[in-house]
Write a structure and sequence with these properties.
The chain is built from 6 helices and 7 strands, in the order βαααβββαβαββα. It is globular. One of its GO terms (molecular function) is acyltransferase activity, transferring groups other than amino-acyl groups. Keywords: Transferase. This is N-acetyltransferase.
Length: 201
């Protein structure tokens, strides 16, 4: 049986060409650009209310340094999706949220981010993940169900609860290895941004 934080019957396979890694302060501009790319409907779904592009960008500029962890999904080296893991009162509870660039939804980025968020939460001692969305946000409801969450409709929102399995020695080892790759990839991206390749004519 695979060692996964998700329910036993949940299978998440990362599509080819998608890289998921933790984001750092060096990724701040990319995160801001992603949130600025969200159209009004996408911002409404993400923040569960009307939010201007400027407010979304202001939120994004602080998201990397906020308490918790944030992960990004890249295609062709460009940040196309973000998954956030934030504490929710106790170490056993945490909240997750997602933002995926228009034109890149329905391609498995959200599921890949969700699996990585669940692994990080599990290894940090979290036993339940919470995801909230509007009832009309069909993509987010489908993602929550794909991750194996239980959906509860209450008032003006859908509350999804995902129970995680306890960490194992293998899951902790795997996160350590993934973390090394994350740091290396982030450093490479930062160097590429600081020293762009010059084309000699």
């Amino acid at each position: 049986m695979p060692d996964t934080p998700l329910p036993a019957d949940t299978q998440i396979r990362r599509p080819a060409g998608i890289q998921v890694r933790r984001l750092w302060s060096s990724d701040r501009n990319a995160v801001v650009s992603l949130f600025q790319s969200l159209d009004p409907d996408s911002r409404f779904d993400r923040f569960m209310g009307t939010v201007s592009e400027a407010r979304a960008a202001a939120y994004a500029s602080h998201a990397v340094a906020a308490e918790g962890q944030i992960f990004g999904a890249f295609t062709d080296g460009v940040l196309r999706g973000v998954g956030e893991l934030r504490p929710a009162g106790t170490t056993a509870e945490a909240e997750i949220a997602f933002a995926v660039a228009p034109g890149h939804r329905g391609r498995g980025l959200g599921a890949a981010l969700g699996a990585r968020l669940a692994e990080a939460a599990r290894n940090g001692g979290t036993r339940r993940l919470h995801l909230r969305c509007l009832p009309g946000n069909r993509r987010m409801r489908a993602l929550a169900q794909r991750l194996g969450a239980e959906l509860r409709l209450g008032g003006q929102e859908v509350h999804a609860v995902l129970a995680l399995s306890p960490p194992t020695m293998f899951s902790l080892w795997r996160e350590g290895v993934d973390g090394l790759f994350d740091v290396a990839a982030a450093a490479s991206a930062a160097c590429s941004a600081a020293w762009p390749v010059m084309t000699v004519v």
